[in-house]
Structures are given as structure tokens and as C-alpha cells.
Batch of 4 targets.
Target 1
Amino acid sequence: MSGLTLKGPYWVAARQHRRALWAVPAVVAAGLVAVVALRIWAGAADTGGAGAAWTNDGHLLLRICMEQAGRGLLFLPLLVGAFVAGPMTARELESGTWRLALTQSTTPKAWLGSKVLVAATVSLLGSAALVAVYRIGWARVSGTYRFHWADHGTYEATGPVLVAYCLLGVALGVLVGQLVRRTLAAMALTGMLTGLVMLVLGALRWSILPVETGTVPLSGHASQVMPSSALIMDTGLVTSIGERLPDYACFERTQNRVICPPDLDVIGRYADFHPVSHYWPTQLIESSLVLALAGVALFAALRLVGARRA
């Protein structure tokens, strides 16, 4: 990690930020030890009969730690972007020390490329390792409250989309760092932009693939037409011509959920949902979109630094 096998500007970039780079495997190792220990402790709940898992201290602590870890990993791309934008890029431009690299037969693109390569490699390996560690713990609590495969936090922390967002943070970091050239301002702006992209794509995530729809008679329940693991998107009433009405349309007039006025022409209930089989296609499509944005940002950053003069 100290860059002993690297050459030129790559060695310099790794050497300059070796403490931060060494922190990544340290965090991964600590997380792995904690998760494995908690899983072993929580394993005692399996011998305690029905409901024992919810009263087992190890299981409860594992749930708490996994919930906090899922939330924390949501901020990882923001931290990556902020670090790349500030200490790795804007600080050198702000202080003028980047000119020293250019006196060592290094071009501006090579200077920036070294930072991108080091940051992207560590971000890629580190975030992938953290996803693997999270999945080890999540496997023990998956499917329970707040740990559904589509829950915010769990979804990001269990798949390649987190890695893609971290790489986006790197690309935005080197671009914003050059444009702003002020360490703190570049860190704040990159964090906000990365978070904004995550919020926007997160809001559109379940519109990527079409939902599946099931119907049941009026006396039935929407949950009867979808797997228990599905992500429900919408439910309501359906008429004989396919028109959709809200769930309460009959109840507000008859005060009975299974009796509808004839004029509404309701024949049953519907449910729109995403089955668990949509998890990986959604992950891969979203990751591709994020990587495409990262590629655009990186291209702009390289064009910008190519036009820069010492």
C-alpha cells in the first residue's frame, strides 16, 4: 500500500497518502473480525427454540451493528469523493506544489492519472471488500425487518452499485478539485454532488425494470399474488375494464372492504411488485449508469488538466 513497487508519480501519490490508504485494509479487517465474532455469538440463538433469536444478545447486537453499517456505507462514496477532491487534488493546486511534479519530467495528465489510478484501485478493492464483509453479516439477518433486499442501505451495501458510486466519487473528486482549487470547498461540493447523484438514481431505481402485476378477487388480499420476498410498489382495486382505483374506494362508501357499490364495477384487487429476481439486473443496470457518469466526469477532468499550464 505504500507504493514500494510503483514508479514515478504513482509512487509519489501512494506515498503522499499512505496513512489514508493503510486505513482502508485496517477498516476492512476490523469489520470482518467484528462481523464474524457477532455471527458466532448470534449462532447460539439457533439452539434456543422459536423466538430465541430476538432475545439473544448476540443476535440483537448483530442487527444493530449491521443496521449502522448499512447506513455508514451509504456515506462511503461521499467520503471517497471528498478525499480525492480535497487532499489529493485541490490541496496541491491551491498550494502550487503540483508544479514540482512537472519538473520531474511528468506531464499534467500523468500527474492527474497517478492520483486517479491510486484512488480508483484502493476504492475499488476497499469497497468490494466491505460489501463482502457486509454480506457475511447480512446473511444472518436477511429478510427480517429493515434488512429486506430492497431496503435503503441494505440494497447499496450488498452489491456492485456501492463500488460504482465510489468510483464516481473518485471521478467527481478529480474534476471538482481542479475546478474549485480550494481544499474544503472542493470536498464539500464533491460530497454534495455525489450524494445528489445517489439520491436521484435511488429515487429512479425501481423504475428501471417494469413491475410484475397480480390480481385476486375482491375478497382476497394483494399479498396472495406475490412472493413474500417481493418489493411491493402499488396496490388497489381494478374494474372490469382494467381501470385502477385506490384501496379505499369501496370502503369509504360502504364501510366494508369486500363490498363495493355496483357503479364502481370493481372485480378484484391488484398488486404491482418487484420480485427478488429483479435485484441483480437492477444492480447491474444502475452500476452501469453510474460508471457511465464517472467516465464522463473523468474525461472532462483529463481534458481540463491537459489544458492546464504550470
Target 2
Amino acid sequence: MFAEEPVTVLPSLRQRRRAVATREIVDAAERQIAGHGPHALSLRAVARDLGMTVQGLYHYFPNRDALVTALVAKAYDDLADAVTAAVDAAADEPAARRFLAATEGYRRWAVTHVERFQLLYGAPLRHYEAPAEGPTTQAMRRLSMVFQREMFDGFTTAQLAAADTRALSPALQAHLEPLFPHGSETLPPSAAALLLGAWGHMHGMVVLEAFGHTSFIGEHQAEIFRMAMRDLLEDIRRRIPTQPPGTPAAP
């Protein structure tokens, strides 16, 4: 007997119209953020831009928080896409250069989309709280995985577990243990500490530039950033042993 071919269920006309309307609302909200900043986001202004009533907008987003959640998740996804594209463009390069490409992609997106970057990492929107384990969390994890993969590419779990992070307290080790998936296991606490420290270093420099705090450096900001990221990666790699302790030396 021939196997039955799977049946593809196409979205209904109503579902397609709803998807189009939802995209238009998100696009209008992004335009408002780009023009006035995230704290000026107004459902009334978004509805007016689309020629609809606020009550009509509520058919697609029941409240402001639902729209903000969609905007934050999309911004994280767009940032992750930019970082992934930068890594893909360096696919034939060694892992170190791919990591540096990822940091460059992160910086370029941030300084090009300052208002949306501010939505992610600026002062929190008043009264907004992201849903626990919701789309914003998932989108942020996707971004984190890109950096984790490129930072630790080529190292075994045993090497990462033996990384020199000085002494982590037992409480911190227990907290870090389950945070980052690493294949079928989780990233060792020492490597998780390195990852978080590196992200803080990179992100801090990008925030300073994107929010105008290093404008006195002028056109040299990109060069300063690249130098700092090379030094950061060299320090991380010095902390990871070429062989984990207890490995027999090569004859």
C-alpha cells in the first residue's frame, strides 16, 4: 500500500487577515518607537497611525503589555538574526574570528537601531513585566546560544569545567549549573561564569556607545570596540586549559 501523503492545512482567510493586521500593528509601533523612543509608546497613537480605533486594536492585542511583549521578542529576534548573519558571513573563518564577527554584528545592530536597543536594554518601561518563560525569554536565549557556541567552539565539556575562574562559591556554582544548555548536558559553572562576564563586557561597551556616552571618541569607537573584544577573547581562551587536569600527556 502507498503511504498517505501528509495533508497540509492552510490558514483560513480570517487567520491570514489577522496575521497581516498584527504585523501592521507591530510595524506601526516600531515606527513610533523609532521616532519618539520606547517610553512614548501609545496604543492610541498606533491605532491612529493605522486608521483604526483603540478598541479595534484590542482585538489583536488585549493590552499594552501584550504589544510590548511582541515588540521586545521581535527586537531580540532581529538582533539575533543580525548576529547570526555576521557569523554566517565568517563561516569559513576560525572560531575566534566568528566570535569577533558575532560581537561586531551585535554592535552594528545596536548603533543602527538605538531606540529598539533601548527598548531591550534601556530603562524598563513603567508597569511592564515580561511574562515568565514567555516569547521574550525564548528570543533572548536564542541570542545567547549564538555567542555561547562561537565562544566555546572546539572545547570539550571537561576543558570548560576546568576553566580558571578563580574560586566560585558553592552557592554560585549551584545557581549557574542549570542555566545554559550544552549539548545533552549543561554548561559547566566555570564556563557559564566566563560567558556571563564576556557578555557584560561586550554589552557594556555597546551600551556606552549606543546611548552616546563615548561620543567623545568619535569615529574611532569601532576600533576601540574591536580591540577590546580581541583582548576579551584572548583572556577567555587563556583561562581554558588545552587539556583538562588528569589527561595523560601525549607520548
Target 3
Amino acid sequence: MNPSTIQIIGAALFAIAVLHTFSTKFFERLAHSQPNHAGLWHLLGEVEAVFGFWAMVLVVFMFFLLGSHEAVTYVDTRNYTEPLFVFAIMVIAASKPILYLAAQLVRGIAALLPLNRQVAYLFTALSVVPLMGSFITEPAAMTLAALLLRDRFYAPGISNRLMYATLGTLFVNVSIGGTLTPFAAPPVLMVAAKWGFDMPFMLATFGWKAALAVLVNASVVTALFARELKSMSIPSNPTNGSAMPIWVVATHLVFLVGVVVFAHHAAMFMGLFLFFLGYTVAYSQYQDRLILKEGLMVAFFLAGLVVLGGMQAWWLQDVLKELSPTALYYGATALTAITDNAALTYLGSLVEGVNDEFKYALVAGAVTGGGLTVIANAPNPAGYAILKPFFSDGAISAGGLFIAAAPPTVVAILAFQLL
């Protein structure tokens, strides 16, 4: 099928947006060197705004080339459930009582390990929390892990090498750590119902391999930077709060679980989220500032990816169905770096008559490459937004992230291909 003019434009704008995400640090530097237009450069330097900006450009093209009705219809028919879900779960997971509970859990597990306290804490945050993503969803796990790492390590100050190594490992571990169940990882969600991926199948086929890779990745990072970690002092109050009443924590957990249960039903989980906002106002003494701005920016990023991604089916689907299982695995790993892995598996699910090897290769490849870039996996922008202020110029180098995520990605490749 020959692509239409708007499909070609959509592919070109998608490529420009991908390149733009690799250039945000350049715009941040311009903001410092050219203060007269700092606002514009800061806007163009926000990764969370990149895909929303280029999605707007695509819609403008559609208005002029296809007419207002077709443009509005296209935007209206996109599925924005995932951006809305990530927004809601990110804000709730980052609330003070949930963060307090997560910190207590991580500290408790770390205390059981025969390691230095800082080493044990980092290992637990990079292993246990990403694996928890299989049950509380990957966006929630990413938010919790990023906040715990921020308060314990990034805010007090760590080396640039450790910041990138931790971030790359976190992104990869969250991407593969959500594969113990069929409902927590976005790329698995897209195919689970159609291909019959239930929990026993996920555990036997993906989960144990992913868990092993997660533990290896966390172990390597903590071993490599053990000397720096041991030299750090422990923050006196990393969760920014004293003891939290059990009923407050329980209430927040009910909201969190409710949003997870209704993750596919936007009207339901957004209704719960609005009740949650009202509750936090009523009991403001137990709250810190909700990360509404950060959550909205992440949702804007993902919504832009949905709009732009909808124009990529004409070439992505053809590429996927022509590959052998091994080539498909490595191709999916590479393609995930430049497109959302959930969109990739969704497009693959539209290919009819595929065998089990195709299904395994596509899903395994999609989650393997989920940590290489900020756009590779839906939860990544959440971690990016939380941790980026601590990097130089307030921006994370796309090249630095890719290099840092490459070694744990290789570990994931070995786990999914050799075990």
C-alpha cells in the first residue's frame, strides 16, 4: 500500500520529534547563553513538550491538507487512556503517604541484606521496586523508585556517572520488571487479551528471566559504585515526613489499587482520581505538594506520542511481519528506542497468522529496549521528569542515557535469548 501525503508527513514529523528528544540539552544550553529568549529555549528543551509540540504541527498540516472535519476526527479517535492513566497513577503514587510506605518497605528489605546501608538501599530500590511494577503497574513503580532515589541519593549529591548509571538501570529494570503479570507493562497489555497471555504464562515465559536480569543489573551497579555509596552520609529524613497514621496510608492505597484495577476504563479511574484530589484537600496536613504539573507534562508527552504514533502503522507493520523471530527480537529492541514499545506490540498484534515464536520475539524485544531512550517506554518520562533537575543544565543527555542503559539492556538480551 502506497502511503498518503499526510502519512509521509506524519512519518517525517515523527522522525523530527525523535531527533528533537536527543537535542534537548542543546536547547537548555541556549537558554543559558541567550537569556533574551530563554523562555522559548526552555520550552524546546523540555522533553515532555517535544511530542506534544510536533503532534500539534501534524494536526495543523491535517487541517490544511484534509480539512477540519478529518483533523478533528483523527484526534478524537485516538485512544488517550494510557496518558490519562499514567497521569493519575503518577500523582497518587508520588503522594506523601504512599512514598512513606514505599520508603519503609525499601528500608526494611535493605536492612535484611548483609551490606552497607547505602549499597543495600540502592540495590533494593533498583530491584524490588521495579519488580513491584508487575503488581502496582510500571508507571507507579517508576514514580516511586525515582522519588526514593531522588531523596536518598540525587538530592544529597552523587557523581554524574552514578546518576546516569542509576537512571539507565532503573529504566531497563522497570521495563522488564513488569513482565511477571499480564496487566502491568504497557507493551504486554496491548497483546495479552488477544494472544492469551495469562499470569502463569507470563511467569513461565518472561517473568523469571526478567527477575533474574533485574537482580543482576542492580547487583552490577551497586558493586561498581560501592565505594562512592559507602562514602555518602545517610539523609536524616529522606521521605520528608514523620510517622504516618495507618488509616491515611490505607486510604491512599485504596485509591492506588482502585486506579490500577480500572486502568482500562478512563472514566472510572479519572473519577477516582478526582475523589483523591478532594480527599487530599480535606486532609492536607498529611500531604506534600502533589506533582500535578509533572504528571500533566508526562501525559502531554504520551498524548503527543499517541497522535504522532497513529501515523506510523503503514511502515512499522510491514517491517515487523517481514522479519524472522530472531531478527524480529533485535529489530523490536532497536525500534523500541525510537517509538513507544506499547505502540510497537499493538501494531504487531494486528499481523494475522503469527506463531508463538513471533509473539515471544516481539514482546521480549519491546520490553528489552524499553530503557534505551525516554520515549521507549511509557513510564520513562515520569522518572525523567522527577530526576532531571539534578543533572547539569537541568537536562538529561539522550546519548548519556543510551550509553548508561546499554549494559543492562545487554543483560536483558542474554536473559531473554539464552535462558
Target 4
Amino acid sequence: MKKQLHIQDSEPLRTAAQINIVRSLIKAKTKEPLRNRLIFDIGINNGIRTNDILRLKVDDVVDANGKPKASTTIVESKTGKKRVLRFNESIQNQLATYLDQRGSSSDWLFASYHNPQKPITAQAVYRMFSRIKAGQPLLKGLTAHSMRRTFGYHFYKQTHDVVTLMKIFNHSSQAITLRYIGIEKEDIDKELSNFSL
């Protein structure tokens, strides 16, 4: 049995090319590409844990008229804190297509096939990421946890606002946040790449 990557071994997707490779592989290598792409895009655009993505219900993401919402509020399972999730236009379009085609009346957005009264498991999502990274050197550190780290990495690169990111992730220090999103390692690697004695 292969050793499962630990959370500390997961890496963010640092480039748009890597993100697009993952999207392409989700389409080509998974049985449920609409569902899996939606999970991935919600994850990288909001930085929430896999368990919290899977706990979303249909009522969380559509309004009374059945139209996809632009945002919703959840309570994070690990921290008990409220978080606003934002659904950009692409995610709203994906939601509309997915809900139209999913063929389930379950309250859960990502319902289990075996038991529609429950969501799919985090283990199923971890296995999906394990399958799509196989044979892909550019995706060596990819796990389900990479979605959260990818959000953090790109949020920081675009805003350089580590204080807000630290609050979003509920970390106790800026150093922890920078290490978590791979900035510390990236900076060290950059400094050492030209170092010579």
C-alpha cells in the first residue's frame, strides 16, 4: 500500500499552468469531472478545508429561485468560526450545470452514491487527487490539502496581506502562515540557488 502524503508534504499549485493541468486531468481522469472540478474550484477560490466543501448543502449554494448564489456563509467544522464563501461567475455557471445534470435529489451538494443521505467522503477526494497526480512531475506535492494552500499562496502573491491571510486560516503567527503556503521554502530555495563558496 502506498504511503499517503501527510498534510505537511502537500504543496500549493504556484502557477496558472499547474492549476490548468489539474483541471485538465480532472476532466480526463475522473468519473465525475463536473463534480470534481467544482470541488477543486470552490477549494482554490476560498481556501476552506475539504471537509467543509463536502458539508455544503444545495440550499447553501442556490437561492429560493434555484439560481446559484454569489456567496454563502458556513461555519467551519474545525474552528466553529463563520466564513463567507464567494462563488465567482465561473463557479456559479459550474453550479448551475452540475445541479442540472447530477440526477440526485439529495440535500447534500456532493452526495454519496452509496448513501445519498451523506456527502462523499474526504478520503474519496484525497484518492482522486492521488490518481490525477500520478506520473505528473509538476504535481508532485498535490493532495486535497493543496486546494487550501493554493488559495493562500495566490492570495498572498496578489495582496501581500499576510495579516488577513493569517486571520482567514486562523493561524497564531505570520511565520506559520508563510510556511504553510510555501513562501518561506520558496524564498529559501531562491536564496540558495545562487549561493556558492
